[in-house]
Amino acid sequence: MSRYSVFTEEHEAVRRTIRKFVEAEIAPHVEEWERQGYFADWVFPRMGELGFLALRYPEKYGGAGGDYFMGVVLAEELGRCGCGSLAMAVAVQTDMATPPIMQFGNEDQIKKYLIPALRGEKVACLGITEPNAGSDVASIETRAVRDGGQWIINGRKIFITNGVRADFITLVAKTDPDLGYNGVSLFLVDRNTPGFTVTRKLEKVGMRSSDTAELLFEDCRVPAESLLGVENRGFHQIMWELQGERLMGMAGAVAGAQQTFEMALEYARSRTQFGRPLVKFQVIAHKLAEMAAEIEAARQLVYSTARKFAAGEYPVKEISIAKLVCAQVSHRVADAALQIHGGYGYMMEYPVQRAWRDSRLNRIGGGTDEIMKEIIAKTLGL
Amino acid sequence: MARWLFREEHEMLRRSVRSWVEKEVRPHVEEWEEKGEFPRELFARAGELGFLGLTYPEEYGGSGEDYLAGAVFMEEMARCGSAGVAAGIGASIGIAGPQIYKFGSEELKRRFLPPTISGEKIGALGITEPNAGSDVASIQTTARDGGDHYLVNGSKIFITNGVRADYVVTAVKTDPAAGRKGISLLVIEKGTPGFSAAKKLDKLGWNASDTGELVFEDCRVPKANLVGQENAGFYYIMQNFAWERLVMALAGVVGAQVAMEEAIRYAQQRVQFGKPLAKFQVIRHKIADMAAMVETARCLTYHALSLFAAGEDAVEAVAMAKIYACETASKVADEALQIHGGYGYMMEYPVQRFWRDARIGTIGGGTTEIMKEIIAERLIR
């Protein structure tokens, strides 16, 4: 039974299954994937086969009908796999690119995109960020113009996770440039559509086995039925889910921090200097105690906020706080863990350096620290 | 409000304590702070309203509620704006009383609990000594067996309620050679010959609470005043530390919240360079950071509280909560003072008091460093 009352025995059973899968089928390949900058294509179909991509989706779509905390379990276990890339790629598939299809898609779209995505047969990506529109989402410039029975799309997207391997993109484009947030729509665009090209696979400081793309749309013509949901409602259709996704991402970040902490603890117990193990030095023991306390605090922040979210509340302030705090904690913990490893921490053969590089993205992706503070300040009436 | 933790009855209690604090406590705290004490009658008034006996059973005058109710009361007391007032009341019912209730004889309970719960008597817990702070086992106050009584010699310091307490649950060495296994607790009443409150200590904060130095010189204490078993005192002390620390963590969260609210109010009113401070991004982000720390501290503290209230092992969760909440209280109060600028440094604004009051949080009830030792002992080494 879990030490945390938010989880039931059913959650824990699923947790054990995922953990076993990660240990047996993922962990042995991580080093190799990181070196080649790409995790194997079999991962998505395999996870789909095991049902991991559809834990929270209803049974009629082949899902397990699990609750929000079932999603937390998946995020936590992938967060522990020692490869932030994989957790991120799966989160994009299950929590970012596909939920709007379930929510706003018609039957054809569900059949064509959602169900294969949940089975891992199709890989999805989400296209929001552009070269000139990062935090300032409303300033996106990609345009979709109606032309009879088609839409013509022009523009660029950048930092698109899964973008190289994706079979389709859930694309955010301007349909009425004069209306700001109210002139944005969502489209489902197939990878092989003429005019849609992957222009670059981007090199990153961390999250190296995840493919991150720059995409180009040049007079890319898609049929009218590619529109997802209601024209000009795209911003609202995508934003509701990004809140839940932020929190889920942080559940993974905290679990990753826990795993990094355990790595540092293990090292500090086995490494002897000045005649005794590092843990016997008070300053190291206290550093580890601080890390443990910070991780527990971040975890409780996630659980408390998840309880609210799962109960149907829309706790924007708490989610933004969780995003801010957990991202910072995850990177601080990784930095402290690297420090405890000393010179070995700087060597590529020890995995702690990867935790340090991977966790850095938590403070940028999915909304920067600074954007979170803007949101928090607003919710405080400032 | 944490709906997953507190029930409707707790929220009702919260409303009633809050309205009492607003009406009868908060308006006077400035005056009490200046005087360096709050009136004894406040104990009696809180007792009359039933607030002092929430966690004690009915047979001693309490109402037999759970620890969550006790937590709600302490949270709302902490909102009064003077941590010293909350500390004085908390020391009597949350620190001194529980030793007698959990470990004392039936006779001791009948003598001391009803008047403590009604607020007629004030209790204190005397552990710390001039040479024994974090290192509790090294106390030097001795209690020599005198047949039907103990002969107590030694001194205590930093004792909350120490000057006006009607009784002090005092840690003494009954077997000085046995270290922590030679410590016992004695209830020593005011007026016992040989017991004197040597002085009231001047403090940086917590000004409305009285903090005493106590001296015992050949003080004869009847054996009937021994709490529980002889030489088991260290264990008793450690048992109740979890609650004391939890209360300090709760007070830390509330203190931080109050300081932040004060900073927000000020930032919205204060105009510089033609606009309110709240319109400067650096101030907005500073406050966002404060809010994030407060929310995190609250979630962690409630987690520790839920474990404690359910009777589970909460030792490391409480230690973590105390570190995080009390460090947060200090940091947030410091930022709140910074936002107030020069006014923050003036005694007429309450933020300076929040800042001073918060500073004891990382020291009292076990320092942050001792909390880390506890975590390290259990998780690390």
Polypeptide structure, described:
The complex is a heterodimer of chains A (382) and B (381). With 382 residues, chain A is an alpha+beta fold. Chain A folds into 3 domains: 9-119, Acyl-CoA dehydrogenase/oxidase, N-terminal domain (Butyryl-Coa Dehydrogenase, subunit A, domain 1, Orthogonal Bundle); 124-232, Butyryl-CoA Dehydrogenase, subunit A, domain 2; 236-379, Butyryl-CoA Dehydrogenase, subunit A, domain 3 (Up-down Bundle). Chain A has helices at residues 9-26, 30-36, 43-49, 68-79, 84-96, 99-104, 107-119, 234-270, 282-310, 316-340, 352-360, 369-379, and strands at residues 124-127, 143-147, 150-161, 168-174, 184-190, 196-201, 212-223, 227-228, 272-273, 276-277. In chain A, strands 1-4-5-8 form a 4-stranded mixed sheet. A 4-stranded antiparallel sheet of chain A has the order 2-3-7-6, covered by helices on one side. In chain A, strands 9-10 form a two-stranded antiparallel sheet. In chain A, a hairpin with a 2-residue loop joins strand 2 and strand 3. The longest helix of chain A is centred in the middle third of the chain and has 37 residues, at 234-270. By secondary structure, chain B is an alpha+beta fold. Chain B folds into 3 domains: 8-121, Butyryl-Coa Dehydrogenase, subunit A, domain 1, CATH 1.10.540.10; 124-231, Butyryl-CoA Dehydrogenase, subunit A, domain 2 (Beta Barrel), CATH 2.40.110.10; 234-380, Butyryl-CoA Dehydrogenase, subunit A, domain 3. Chain B has 11 helices and 10 strands. Chain B has helices spanning 8-25, 29-35, 41-48, 67-78, 83-103, 106-118, 233-269, 281-309, 315-339, 351-359, 368-380, and strands spanning 123-126, 142-145, 149-160, 167-173, 183-189, 195-200, 211-222, 226-227, 271-272, 275-276. In chain B, a hairpin with a 3-residue loop joins strand 2 and strand 3. In chain B, helix 7 (233-269) runs antiparallel to helix 8 (281-309). The mean pLDDT of chain B is 97. Chains A and B meet through helix 9, helix 10 and helix 12 of A and helix 7, helix 8, helix 9 and helix 11 of B.
